[in-house]
C-alpha cells in the first residue's frame, strides 16, 4: 500500500492558516527566508524520508541492534540515511548560520521533522540526541568544550547522548550515585553505572560524547550536589585526533517494545581508573543544565507522540478508503457489492477520534515550537517574556497529552485495520509500539502531573496559569463572532469554569490538607487541563475553518474545512465531557486510591 | 524477579465464595469430584505452567516460528510443554469420561487454564484450537468423522484448526469464495485461500485437521450457502495410517504484534486437483456449526483477556512493592530513604485500576463459564434454559469487556514499571501485545456491538435483556441489606435506569430512523452495558466481602476483603460514571460520526 506519511494539506493549514508562520520572515533572524524556502526544507525532509527511511522502516524494527560482546551492529542502511539528513542540514536547521545552521524557525523545522519521524525516523533519534547534546554544550559549556566536542557533533563525525538514569534510582535523579573525583589536571575521573542510555553505543560515528550526571566527591547529597560532565567514549587529542579508550563499557543492550532502531544501553563508566570527564559549567549545577535540555526534549517527545498519531491516522484512513468488506446495516441484499470499510459508522468513529487526537496534538506541539521561538525572537521583550511564561507552564501538557492520546490514536489505527493491524505488513502496530515510550521517557505522566500542580500552577503567583486562561478567553471572544461555533464556545466557557473551580479546590486542599492526599489525583488534573487546552486549539482551528468556508473555497478546501469542523464537534461531544468526572474526583479530593493500603492489594 | 502468575487467594474467592463452585459436586455429572480434586487439577496446571511454560515464555516471543519454504519450525521446548498438558488431561478436562475427559466443571477448568495462559500459554493455543475443533466435530460430525479425526486429536497425535477468513472478505464470511466440488465417492474437492489461520502449520503433530468453510458449487450466495469440511493436511487411510499430502500449502507466515508462539498462516487449498474434504453435517449449514464453536471461542477470548490482565496486575504489584524510588510529596528531606513505588498515590491508582479491571473481568468470564455449564447440567430444565438465555445474551460482553479493559490494565502495568515496563526483561509489554489481539479476533468490538444491539437485545421479546436485568436487581436487593454498600447499590440502580432509558431510545431510533444512523454509536452501547455488568459483578463481590468481614476474619483475609471493597469503590467512583456520557450520545442519536463524509477526512 502506498503510504501518505503526513497530510500535506493539514501541515499547510497549521503553519500558514492557524499559526501564520509566514509572518515570521519579518523577524530579523529569518529575513533570508520566505514561504518558499520554508516549503523547500519541508519537501527536502519529505524526500529524504521517502527515499532513505521509508524503505527501511520495517527492517529497523525487525533487525534490532546486536551486541556480540565487543561491537554493536546496526543495519547498514541506517548510516547513509542519517548522513543524508546531516548533509541536508535539516538536523541542525534551527541553529545559527555561524554554527552551520539554517536559522530556520523551530515550527518549520518541527514540521519538516514529522516526515522523517513518520517514515521510521526512530533511527533519527541518534541525530536528535546529538543536537540536544550540542545545544546544551553551546548554552552552558566553555569555548574549549564547544570547540572540541560540539564541532565534530555538528559535522556528523561524533554523536552524543544524555546519561542520567541509574539502576538504583530511576526517575529520582537526586539519588544518583555516579562518582566524580577531581584530578590535578582540572579534569575528573568518573565511575558508575547508567541505564537506558539511548544511543549509548553504535557503529554510526567515530566517537560518542556522553553528557553524564555525577556527584563530585564531597558534594551535597540530593539534587543540589549533581554536576554535569562530558565523558567521551574515546579520548581526543588537542588537535582533534580520536585516541584511546576512555573506559566507557557497554554492559548490555535493552530490548524494547518499540523504538528498536535506537540502541538503549547499560553503560559502565571507569571500572579501572575512572573515565576522564570534563566539567560542564560549574560544579553542582548539573541538574539545572540538564533541565534546560530536558524542557526541549519534552517538546520533542510530544512532537513524536503527535507525529506518530498523524502517521497512523493517515495510514488507517488510506486503508479504510480502499478496503472493501461487509455491507451497511440498511443493506438487506447480501449479494450487493461490499462497501469500503470507511462507510461503516464505527470505522468512521475510530477515524474521527484519531483525527481529533492527532491533529489536536499536532496543533499543540507546533504551538509549543512557536512559543520556543517567540521566547527568543518575538519583536518585543514583553512578547518574549509572555511566550516564556506560556511555554514553561504548558510544557507538562505539551509533553503528555500527545503522548497519551497519540498512543490511543495508534491503538484505534490498529483496530481499524483489524487483523491486518496486528501484523507487521502494515506499520500501525509499529507506530503504537514506538509511541508507547513517549508517556514514559523524559518524565512519566505521573511525574508531569506533579510538576504541573506543585510547580507550574503556583509559580510566580500563578502567572503561567493566568496567562494561559487569557489566551483561551481571547479565542472564545473571536469564536463568539462565528454563529456556527456557538455550541463550542459556550461549552469551552463551561469547561474553563470547571477548570478554575477545580484548580481552586486542589490548591485549597494542597494548603489545608495532607499534601499526599491533595495530590493523589494529580494525573486527573493534568488530563483535565490537557483536554481544555486541546479543546481550545480545536476551537482555534474551527475559527480558521469557519472563516475560510465563508469565502466559498473550491471543493477540496470546502471538504477539508468541513472535516475540521466535524473533528471539532467530535472532540467537544465525545471527549471534552470526560472532564466532568475528573473534576468531580478532584473537587471532592477523592481518597479512594490514597486510602488503599499496601496490604489490601 | 519471582513471578506470582495468578492470585491464588482471589481464585479461591471467585470459585468458592463468589460462585459457590463446591455445590457443583451435587450434580450427577460431577459426583466423583470434590473441592480437593478441583484444587488438585488447578495445582497441576500451576505446576505445569511454572515448570514448562514460564521458563520459555520470553523465548516463545523472541523466537518466532520460522518457515524455510518447506517446513515450519518452532522452538523445541514447546512440544514437551504441550505434551505435558495433554498428559495431565487438563486440555480435555471438561470432556466426558468416554472421550478420555475428566468431567470437570468448566469453571474449574477455566480457573486451571489461567495459570497456563499467564505463564506464556500462547503456545497452548494449538491445544485449545484442537479441542474446539474436536468439540465441534463431536457435536455436528458423523461417527465416521469422529472416529477418524477426533480420536487422534484427543490423544495429541493430530492437531486442529478453524479455517474461516479469506483475503478478500475478512470478517464478512458471507462473501467467502473457497470452492467445494462434490466428488463421486461422496467427498469434495476444496480449493481456495485462507488467511490468519492460527496453528495452520507447525511441527508439533503428525497431522493437522483443518475445519474449512467453503461454498459447494451451485449453493446459494451469501451466508446461506456455506458448508463446513474436514480438510486434513495429510490424507489418512481407513486404518489410521497418515499418508499422502492433501494439497494444503503454506503460502506464508504472518508476523504478529504478539501471540507469536502460535503460527498465523496463509493457506492455499487444492491448487492442482483440489484438496479432499469431508462434509461436516449437512451442506449449507456450515456457518451454524461454526457459530456454535465461535460462541465457545468468544468466551475463551474473554478469558484470555481477563487472565492476561490479572497476570500483568500481579507482576506490576510485586514490582511496585519491591522497587524503591523517590519520596512522597510530604517528605521534605531529600536524604531520607526512598520509598517503594507502591507508596506513590498515582502508582496505587494504576494498581487499583488494574485490580478493578482484571478481577472484574475475571469474575465476568468465570460467570460465563458457569453459565455454559448450567445450560447443560443445572438441576432443572428451567434453570438450564435460563442459563442459556443469559449466556447467549451476554456473550458479546463476555468477549469484549475483558479484551478491551484487560488490555487497558496491561497498558497500566507497563506504566507502573516505567522504563522497565518497556523492555522485555519484564513480561508486561508482552502481556499487552498478546492481549491486544483479543479485541480483534473472533469478531471485533464493532462487530460484537452490532450483534448485541441487532440480535441479542431484541431476541425473543428481549428475553435475554430482561433476564439479565432481573439478575442485577436480585443482587441489588441483597446489597441493600449491607449498610456499607448503600452508595454502590444506589448508584447501580441509577446506572440500570440509565441503561434502560438508553435501550429504549436506541431501539426507538432503530425502528423509526435510518438504521445506519441508529446504530452509528453501537460501540458506546456495548461499553455502557459492559460497565453496568461489571459494576454488578463488583457489587456481588462487595456483598461477599462485606459478609465475610462481619465475621471477623483473620488479618490476611480482612486485608483481602478490604481490598475488594476498595476496588469496588474505585470502579464505582472512577469508572462507572463514564456511562453518563455514553448514554447521552446514544440517547440523542448523536450523528457526528455518521455525518462525517468520506471526502471530509
TrEMBL record, chains A, B:
Keywords from the named record: FAD, Flavoprotein, Oxidoreductase
Domain of life: Bacteria
Residue ranges of every copy of the Acetyl-CoA dehydrogenase-like C-terminal domain listed in the record: 469-596
A Pfam family it matches: Acyl-CoA_dh_1
InterPro entries the record matches: Acyl-CoA_dh-like_C_dom, Acyl-CoA_Oxase/DH_mid-dom, Acyl-CoA_Oxase/DH_mid-dom_sf, AcylCo_DH-like_C, AcylCo_DH/oxidase_C, AcylCoA_DH/ox_N_sf, AcylCoA_DH/oxidase_NM_dom_sf, Diverse_Acyl-CoA_DH
Domain Acyl-CoA dehydrogenase/oxidase C-terminal: 284-451
GO MF: flavin adenine dinucleotide binding; oxidoreductase activity, acting on the CH-CH group of donors
Cofactor or coenzyme needed: FAD
Family the UniProt entry places it in: Belongs to the acyl-CoA dehydrogenase family.
Name of the molecule in the record: Acyl-CoA dehydrogenase
Amino acid at each position: 500500500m502506498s503510504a501518505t506519511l503526513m497530510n500535506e494539506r493539514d501541515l499547510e493549514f497549521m503553519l500558514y492558516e492557524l499559526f501564520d508562520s509566514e509572518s515570521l520572515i519579518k523577524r530579523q533572524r529569518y529575513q533570508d527566508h520566505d514561504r518558499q524556502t520554508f516549503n523547500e526544507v519541508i519537501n527536502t525532509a519529505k524526500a529524504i524520508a521517502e527515499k532513505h527511511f521509508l524503505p527501511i522502516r520495517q527492517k529497523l524494527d525487525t533487525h534490532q541492534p546486536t551486541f556480540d560482546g565487543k561491537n554493536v551492529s546496526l543495519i547498514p542502511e541506517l548510516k547513509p540515511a542519517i548522513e543524508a539528513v546531516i548533509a541536508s542540514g535539516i538536523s541542525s536547521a534551527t541553529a545559527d548560520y555561524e554554527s552551520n545552521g539554517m536559522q530556520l524557525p523551530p515550527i518549520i523545522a518541527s514540521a519538516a521533522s514529522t516526515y522523517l519521524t513518520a517514515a521510521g525516523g526512530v533511527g533519527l533519534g541518534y541525530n536528535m540526541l546529538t543536537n540536544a547534546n550540542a545545544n546544551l554544550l553551546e548554552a552552558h559549556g566553555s569555548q574549549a568544550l564547544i570547540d572540541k566536542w560540539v564541532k565534530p557533533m555538528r559535522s556528523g563525525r561524533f554523536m552524543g547522548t544524555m546519561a542520567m538514569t541509574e539502576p538504583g534510582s530511576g526517575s529520582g535523579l537526586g539519588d544518583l550515585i555516579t562518582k566524580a573525583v577531581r584530578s590535578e589536571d582540572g579534569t575528573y575521573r568518573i565511575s558508575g553505572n547508567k541505564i537506558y542510555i539511548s544511543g549509548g553505543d553504535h557503529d554510526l560515528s567515530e566517537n560518542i560524547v556522553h553528557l553524564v550526571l555525577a556527584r563530585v566527591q564531597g558534594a551535597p547529597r540530593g539534587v543540589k550536589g549533581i554536576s554535569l560532565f562530558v565523558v567521551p567514549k574515546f579520548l581526543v587529542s588537542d588537535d582533534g585526533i580520536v585516541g584511546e579508550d576512555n573506559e566507557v563499557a557497554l554492559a548490555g543492550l535493552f530490548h524494547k517494545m518499540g523504538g528498536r532502531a535506537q540502541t538503549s544501553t547499560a553503560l559502565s563508566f571507569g571500572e579501572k581508573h575512572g573515565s576522564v570527564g570534563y566539567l560542564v559549567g560549574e560544579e553542582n549545577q548539573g541538574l539545572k543544565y540538564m533541565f534546560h535540555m530536558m524542557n526541549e526534549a519534552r517538546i520533542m517527545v510530544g512532537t513524536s507522540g503527535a507525529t506518530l498519531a498523524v502517521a497512523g491516522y493517515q495510514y488507517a484512513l488510506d486503508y479504510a478508503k480502499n478496503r472493501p468488506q461487509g455491507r451497511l446495516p440498511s443493506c438487506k441484499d447480501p449479494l450487493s457489492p461490499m462497501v469500503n470499510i470507511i462507510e461503516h459508522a464505527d470505522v468512521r468513529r475510530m477515524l474521527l477520534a484519531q483525527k481529533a487526537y492527532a491533529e489536536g496534538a499536532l496543533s499543540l506541539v507546533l504551538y509549543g515550537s512557536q512559543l520556543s521561538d517567540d521566547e527568543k525572537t518575538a519583536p518585543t521583550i514583553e512578547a518574549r517574556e509572555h511566550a516564556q511564561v506560556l511555554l514553561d507552564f504548558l510544557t507538562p501538557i505539551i509533553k503528555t497529552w500527545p503522548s497519551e492520546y497519540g498512543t490511543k490514536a495508534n491503538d484505534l489505527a490498529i483496530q481499524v485495520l483489524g487483523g491486518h493491524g496486528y501484523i507487521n505488513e502494515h506499520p500501525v502496530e509499529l507506530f503504537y509500539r514506538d509511541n508507547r515510550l513517549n508517556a514514559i521517557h523524559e518524565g512519566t505522566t505521573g511525574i508531569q502531573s506533579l510538576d504541573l500542580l506543585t510547580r507550574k500552577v503556583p509559580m510566580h503567583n500563578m502567572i503561567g496559569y493566568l496567562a494561559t486562561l487569557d489566551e483561551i478567553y481571547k479565542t472564545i471572544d473571536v469564536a463568539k463572532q462565528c454563529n456556527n461555533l456557538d455550541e463550542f464556545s459556550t461549552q469551552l466557557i463551561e469547561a474553563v469554569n470547571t477548570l478554575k473551580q477545580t484548580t481552586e479546590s486542589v490548591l485549597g486542599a494542597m494548603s489545608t490538607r495532607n499534601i499526599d492526599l491533595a495530590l493523589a489525583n494529580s494525573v486527573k488534573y493534568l488530563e483535565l487541563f490537557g483536554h481544555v487546552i486541546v479543546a481550545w486549539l480545536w476551537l482555534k482551528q474551527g475559527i480558521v475553518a469557519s472563516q475560510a468556508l465563508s469565502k466559498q473555497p473550491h471543493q477540496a478546501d470546502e471538504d477539508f474545512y468541513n472535516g475540521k469542523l466535524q473533528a471539532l464537534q467530535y472532540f467537544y461531544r465525545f471527549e471534552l465531557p470526560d472532564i466532568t468526572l475528573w473534576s468531580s474526583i478532584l473537587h471532592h479530593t477523592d481518597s479512594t486510591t490514597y486510602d488503599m493500603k499496601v496490604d489490601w492489594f
